[in-house]
């Protein structure tokens, strides 16, 4: 497990939930709740981290992140990169 962890850390930039991501996540949560359009917490957190860091999210699970586009999340289909 340790070797795998080292491999991941050396090949990828690991982004954590920070204060800015929490602020963004809270604002988005409140707005989605007001509209009755909540998404799963992990998806909200992942999307908020991407927004806070001005990064696109590459995924094949576009449906889960569709509602975050209005908050500035850019979603790229992983299949389009192949």
UniProtKB/TrEMBL annotation:
Coiled coil: none annotated. It comes from the Archaea. This is PIN domain-containing protein. One of its GO terms (molecular function) is metal ion binding. Keywords: Hydrolase, Magnesium, Metal-binding, Nuclease, Toxin-antitoxin system. The keyword Magnesium applies. It comes from Sulfolobus tengchongensis. InterPro entries: PIN-like_dom_sf (IPR029060), PINc/VapC_TA_RNase (IPR051749). Gene3D superfamilies: 5'-nuclease. The lineage of its organism: Archaea, Thermoproteota, Thermoprotei, Sulfolobales, Sulfolobaceae. The keyword Thylakoid does not apply.
